[in-house]
Design brief:
The chain is mostly helical and 304 residues long. Helix content is 70%, strand content 2%.
Length: 304
């Protein structure tokens, strides 16, 4: 802990104790020992690589767009088309691979918007308190009073159907959770000794929030974000399934399931493949988030 002498010569603490490498090493060791977390991390990394390399590994990249091949519509799985084709002859495997890119882009965009909106509001509400805290938290409560999926559907119905508008609709329902998390961290730390010392030295409120309060909100926000990826992807798929999200020819898993639902009995590969992809991605990030929550719990890390 750094210190500055006051005029009387008494050292005055002004900074939070630094996080040592031992704690980080302990958390990493615990993460490696958590098999489920490792499986989730491996699957998540694989999905990210698939999204990045989709144009390279997809057997028919043009089929992820507006290309059509009516002569091979609803072809069964074969050596050329491992997961068959859809109603207009597009390769299902290629569209599933490109759907990984679409789903991760939606999840990343929603999380970025939710964090950028929710975390600053929560930090300010928790640190300042008073009437400002009441106003921000009451607005947050209004959003939390509605189920996230229901509110997303209502907002998406008002906007024109598209990936971008679906992203905005989901983000508008997701930020309150991060506001709550950030507020809790701010309330827990605003009366700590080093924060009061910084205030006594005349450190600006913005600097205190950035240097002392925000770092304490990083861990819970990181864990919550990893757990939220699966929920966001399922919500985005639900919007597309109902015609309020991605539109053809965009390769998106929920849209593919919607297009193939009537063909489940005869051409099962068409709706099943994107459905399995949704389950795998949700499972991967849930396992990863649960593992992070376990190893980053301050009480458990300190005990190790």
């Amino acid at each position: 802990m750094s210190a500055l002498p006051d005029p009387a010569g008494t050292p005055l603490a002004v900074a939070a104790p630094p996080v040592g490498t031992g704690r980080t090493r302990s958390a990493w060791t615990a993460l490696r020992s958590n098999r489920f977390a490792l499986v989730g991390a491996a699957l998540a990394l694989l999905l990210v690589l698939i999204a990045l390399l989709a144009p390279v590994i997809a057997p028919f990249p043009d089929d992820a767009g507006s290309a059509t091949h009516p002569e091979i519509a609803l072809a069964k799985p074969s050596g050329e088309h491992l997961l068959g084709t859809d109603q207009v002859g597009r390769d299902v495997l290629s569209r599933v691979l490109y759907g990984t890119r679409t789903s991760l882009r939606i999840a990343a965009s929603v999380l970025i918007l939710a964090v950028l909106i929710g975390v600053p509001l929560g930090l300010v509400a928790g640190y300042v308190g008073g009437w400002l805290d009441d106003v921000i938290m009451r607005i947050t409560d209004i959003f939390l009073a509605f189920p996230a999926l229901l509110l997303s559907l209502a907002l998406a119905a008002v906007l024109s159907p598209s990936v971008g508008n679906a992203t905005l609709a989901i983000a508008a329902t997701w930020w309150p959770w991060y506001a709550r998390l950030a507020r809790g961290s701010a309330v827990a730390i605003r009366d700590r000794g080093y924060v009061e010392a910084a205030r006594a030295l005349g450190v600006s409120r913005r600097r205190i929030l950035a240097r002392h309060v925000l770092p304490n909100a990083t861990t819970p926000v990181l864990v919550q974000a990893s757990l939220d990826v699966g929920g966001i992807i399922i919500t985005a798929a639900a919007l597309s399934f109902l015609g309020l999200g991605a539109q053809d020819p965009t390769a998106e898993w929920g849209l593919m399931v919607s297009q193939g639902q009537a063909l489940l009995a005869t051409n099962w590969w068409f709706p099943v493949a994107p459905g399995v992809a949704i389950v795998i991605m949700a499972l991967a990030f849930n396992l990863l988030g649960d593992g992070l929550r376990t190893v980053l719990d301050p009480r458990k890390v300190a005990a190790r």
